[in-house]
Structure prediction request, 310 residues.
Amino acid sequence: MRNAMDVLIEKIKKYNNPTVIGVDTRYDMVPACVRNKYSKDIEGMCRAMLEYSKALIDATYDIVPAVKLQSAYFEMYGVEGIKLYKTMIDYCKEKGMVVMADVKRGDIGSTSAGYSRAYLGKNTIEGEERPVFDVDFATVNPYMGSDCVMPFVEDCKKYDKGIFVLVKTSNKSSGEIQDVKAEDGEEIYKKVAKLVNKWGEELIGENGYSSVSSVVGATYPKQLQELREIMPNSYFLIPGYGAQGGKAEDIALGFDKNGLGGIVNATRSLMCAYKSDLWKDKFTEEEYAKATRAEAIRMRDELNEAIKNR
Prediction:
């Protein structure tokens, strides 16, 4: 069975690039050379963010297989921000990228069904079944249990979509809950990992990976390696590279012997590459998109080398 994960893997192989560019569009991240073109009201701010975000996609879509759009940084600008989110999803799809909605939804069954329909399913609009936010993958928070995840799993089956379930996240305080040991001595994140295996067992594709997969942070290499053994059929969306401190040699532990099994997210290190110590003397502020492309190539090459030598 060919599934949504097979499509992502094909893109990764085509570009020889196991990375995803994160787009967390905030107005304060937009270079002044773009901000100064527009008014300072919400509409003008969103127009500036749109120009900035499109330019980053234009600079990377032919070398980076996927984009992850963080909904919070669009929602914070209200209705205009939601419109911008939809516009960016559609633009990235037009460019041929695999699109991930980083929404981290998860609620009681009926509410999860609504969230899932918005991002993975379809709604009847003007008498026709249509997707609302036409993305390929969504992130899901499983900490309300199976009934909050199963509506997403069912829509993965019905609409050939995928999800990445939070298992071991990259933030500093994740251990407050995820590392807690149950009565049998097993950590919560390992129990969640085993549930992800169960949820995804009917959706394993041609490459041996399920379209129900996992978010596993780069900042915890020991757990990354453990989870690769526990979850042989789960592709890992790996945040934490770059600005959060995740190192390529640690991230490589999450990949399999064929160099597959993970796609690594970078956001600030790509979006703001023009301000980094590595690129600020090579590119002007106006060349921010060129700096992002250069950093995307450097990141790709560094990760590929680490994976090859793991």
In short: The mean pLDDT is 94.
